[in-house]
Amino acid sequence: MYARYCRSMLCTPATAVGRYATCHRSGADICLVDLEDSVPPQDKAEARDRGSAFFSGESASGRRCAVRMNTLTESEGMRDLLALREYPIRPSIVLVPKVESPRDIEIVARLLRPVRPDLELCAVIETPRGVEAAAAIAATSPHLRALVFGSADYASAIGAQLRWEPLAQARTRVVNAARAAEVEAIDSPTFHVQDLAALRREAILARDLGFSGKIALHPRQVAVINQVFSPDAASLEAARRVVAAGQRSGQGITTVDGVMVGRPFFEASQRLLDEFDSSG
Question: In the CATH scheme, what is the homologous superfamily, with its name and number, of domain 8-228?
């Protein structure tokens, strides 16, 4: 068992109703129906209408289901908010794209919380202004649970290649902003959905940089992401040894397996156990 907020988030177009059940049964920590990038402009109204079934279908029972709305500063985004208020089952998790100001999050919370008091929001950081304002955005609301990095839009906006190295600095800023505000950081998808080796490499890089999860675009990606963002038995056992050593030393500097460890090691190991270890 684990208690981490999200390792994997599988995205499904709202117009692809036939794929809803597959998404729900994929093993993703959060199942996401998309009203934004995966839906052509001419199909937005249809997507809003169909999307309500993502939350009320039989396969959705017991799943954590989310929606990605359209950009708040565009008319489709406002239409999405009004539609979400009227869904028979309102989504408890909403991804807000292209967030550039704390005000974006405040507006969504103001409109949706009256009909969904337990609302959780995730801010997608995918523009230069969004990266610059990431720290303020992350700290703006107790209902904000995560920052999500959007690599494709960000790379396009700054004229960069859609590869890890050119975007590493922006990713680092998103992770730092999220952690400073004590919210989660979720990485963007790997777009080569057939290349699971590339997905694994990028997921490991994201994990090692401090991200706690990653978006998936295809069900086949979910298992790889969940595995990368979950510690194996050896890692959990090592964390137990570090925590025990910290308790014996009174949180003072000591050695474990020939490695000098101190408070940052104790805290990181305890956090890992809190999130993933069910043996205690």
Answer: Phosphoenolpyruvate-binding domains (3.20.20.60)
Contact 38, 13 (CB under 8 A): yes
Tally of helices (H runs) and strands (E runs) in the chain = 13, 10
For the chain, the domains span 8-228, 233-276
Provide φ and ψ at 72, rounded to 5°.
-60, -30
- For the chain, the distance separating the N- and C-terminal CA atoms, rounded to the nearest angstrom, is 11
Find the helix or strand (DSSP H, E) in which 263 lies.
helix 263-276
Task: Tell me the per-residue pLDDT of 103-113, one tens digit each, with 9 for 90 and over.
Answer: 999 999 999 99
Q: Looking at the chain, how many residues does it have?
A: 280
pTM passes above 0.85 = yes
State the residue for tokens 């523009």: 127
Place of tokens 């014996």: 248
Q: What letter represents residue 243's amino acid?
A: V
pLDDT in tens, 166-225: 999 999 999 999 999 999 999 999 999 999 999 999 999 999 999 999 999 999 999 999
- Contact between residue 10 and residue 64 where contact means Cβ atoms under 8 Å apart: no
